[in-house]
Design brief:
Helix content: over 70%
Strand content: under 5%
Radius of gyration: 18 Å
CATH superfamily of one domain: lambda repressor-like DNA-binding domains
Oligomer: single chain
Protein backbone atom coordinates (compact mmCIF):
# COMPACT_ATOMS: atom_id res chain seq x y z
CA UNK A 1 0.00 0.00 0.00
CA UNK A 2 1.29 3.46 -0.91
CA UNK A 3 1.76 6.04 1.79
CA UNK A 4 0.71 9.67 1.30
CA UNK A 5 4.23 10.79 0.31
CA UNK A 6 4.39 8.21 -2.46
CA UNK A 7 0.96 9.23 -3.73
CA UNK A 8 1.93 12.91 -3.73
CA UNK A 9 5.17 12.12 -5.54
CA UNK A 10 3.33 10.19 -8.25
CA UNK A 11 0.65 12.85 -8.67
CA UNK A 12 3.05 15.79 -8.88
CA UNK A 13 5.48 13.93 -11.09
CA UNK A 14 2.57 12.96 -13.35
CA UNK A 15 1.50 16.59 -13.62
CA UNK A 16 4.99 17.62 -14.71
CA UNK A 17 5.11 14.78 -17.23
CA UNK A 18 1.77 15.91 -18.68
CA UNK A 19 3.05 19.50 -18.98
CA UNK A 20 6.21 18.30 -20.73
CA UNK A 21 4.14 16.17 -23.13
CA UNK A 22 1.94 19.14 -23.93
CA UNK A 23 5.02 21.36 -24.42
CA UNK A 24 6.29 18.81 -26.93
CA UNK A 25 2.97 19.12 -28.76
CA UNK A 26 2.29 15.39 -28.50
CA UNK A 27 -0.95 13.60 -27.78
CA UNK A 28 -0.90 10.59 -25.45
CA UNK A 29 -0.56 8.12 -28.29
CA UNK A 30 2.44 9.91 -29.84
CA UNK A 31 3.99 10.33 -26.40
CA UNK A 32 3.50 6.62 -25.70
CA UNK A 33 5.26 5.74 -28.96
CA UNK A 34 8.16 8.02 -28.02
CA UNK A 35 8.42 6.35 -24.59
CA UNK A 36 7.67 2.84 -25.84
CA UNK A 37 4.51 2.41 -23.77
CA UNK A 38 0.75 2.49 -24.33
CA UNK A 39 -1.36 5.63 -24.28
CA UNK A 40 -3.25 3.98 -21.39
CA UNK A 41 0.02 3.84 -19.42
CA UNK A 42 0.67 7.49 -20.26
CA UNK A 43 -2.77 8.36 -18.90
CA UNK A 44 -2.11 6.46 -15.65
CA UNK A 45 1.30 8.10 -15.28
CA UNK A 46 -0.10 11.58 -15.83
CA UNK A 47 -2.85 10.98 -13.25
CA UNK A 48 -0.36 9.70 -10.67
CA UNK A 49 -1.72 6.17 -10.65
CA UNK A 50 1.53 4.67 -11.94
CA UNK A 51 5.16 5.79 -11.90
CA UNK A 52 7.16 5.97 -15.08
CA UNK A 53 10.17 3.68 -15.36
CA UNK A 54 13.44 5.44 -14.72
CA UNK A 55 14.88 4.88 -18.20
CA UNK A 56 11.75 6.51 -19.66
CA UNK A 57 12.16 9.45 -17.29
CA UNK A 58 15.75 9.86 -18.41
CA UNK A 59 14.72 9.76 -22.07
CA UNK A 60 12.06 12.40 -21.42
CA UNK A 61 14.48 14.60 -19.48
CA UNK A 62 17.03 14.44 -22.28
CA UNK A 63 14.37 15.28 -24.89
CA UNK A 64 12.98 18.22 -22.89
CA UNK A 65 16.24 19.51 -21.44
CA UNK A 66 15.14 19.16 -17.82
CA UNK A 67 16.74 17.32 -14.93
CA UNK A 68 15.48 14.23 -13.13
CA UNK A 69 15.40 16.41 -10.04
CA UNK A 70 12.85 18.63 -11.76
CA UNK A 71 10.80 15.75 -13.09
CA UNK A 72 10.66 13.81 -9.82
CA UNK A 73 10.71 16.57 -7.21
CA UNK A 74 9.87 19.72 -9.17
CA UNK A 75 13.18 21.35 -8.27
CA UNK A 76 15.10 23.23 -10.93
CA UNK A 77 18.84 22.91 -10.61
CA UNK A 78 21.64 24.74 -12.33
CA UNK A 79 23.41 21.43 -12.89
CA UNK A 80 22.42 20.40 -16.39
CA UNK A 81 24.81 17.47 -16.56
CA UNK A 82 23.33 14.44 -18.24
CA UNK A 83 22.57 11.20 -16.52
CA UNK A 84 25.34 8.67 -17.14
CA UNK A 85 24.42 6.02 -19.70
CA UNK A 86 25.18 3.20 -17.24
CA UNK A 87 22.31 4.45 -15.05
CA UNK A 88 19.93 4.26 -17.99
CA UNK A 89 21.15 0.77 -18.86
CA UNK A 90 21.02 -0.41 -15.27
CA UNK A 91 17.39 0.58 -14.71
CA UNK A 92 16.01 0.13 -18.21
CA UNK A 93 14.73 -3.32 -17.31
CA UNK A 94 14.34 -2.71 -13.59
CA UNK A 95 11.53 -4.52 -11.89
CA UNK A 96 9.32 -2.73 -9.31
CA UNK A 97 11.55 -3.91 -6.44
CA UNK A 98 14.71 -2.45 -8.03
CA UNK A 99 12.85 0.74 -8.88
CA UNK A 100 11.69 1.07 -5.25
CA UNK A 101 15.29 0.68 -4.08
CA UNK A 102 16.32 3.55 -6.37
CA UNK A 103 13.47 5.76 -5.20
CA UNK A 104 14.32 5.03 -1.55
CA UNK A 105 17.94 5.90 -2.23
CA UNK A 106 16.95 9.17 -3.91
CA UNK A 107 14.69 10.05 -0.97
CA UNK A 108 17.45 9.28 1.54
CA UNK A 109 19.88 11.41 -0.44
CA UNK A 110 17.38 14.27 -0.52
CA UNK A 111 16.80 14.00 3.23
CA UNK A 112 20.54 14.16 3.82
CA UNK A 113 20.89 17.18 1.54
CA UNK A 114 18.01 18.93 3.33
CA UNK A 115 19.60 18.18 6.70
CA UNK A 116 22.90 19.63 5.48
CA UNK A 117 21.17 22.78 4.24
CA UNK A 118 19.38 23.18 7.60
CA UNK A 119 22.70 22.98 9.45
CA UNK A 120 24.28 25.51 7.06
CA UNK A 121 21.32 27.86 7.57
CA UNK A 122 21.65 27.61 11.36
CA UNK A 123 25.36 28.45 11.22
CA UNK A 124 24.71 31.33 8.84
CA UNK A 125 22.06 32.78 11.20
CA UNK A 126 24.37 32.37 14.20
CA UNK A 127 27.14 34.15 12.30
CA UNK A 128 24.79 36.99 11.36
CA UNK A 129 23.53 37.31 14.95
CA UNK A 130 27.05 37.39 16.35
CA UNK A 131 28.03 40.06 13.82
CA UNK A 132 25.23 42.29 15.12
CA UNK A 133 26.18 41.80 18.77
CA UNK A 134 29.84 42.71 18.36
Amino acid sequence: MKDRNEENLAVHCGERIRMLRENLGMNREEFGEFLDCSDESVSKIERGLQMMKLWRMVRLCQKCGVSLDYLIRGINTDDSSSVPSFVIELFQDADPYEYRILMDHLQNAQNEISRKHDIEDRYRKLAEESAFTE
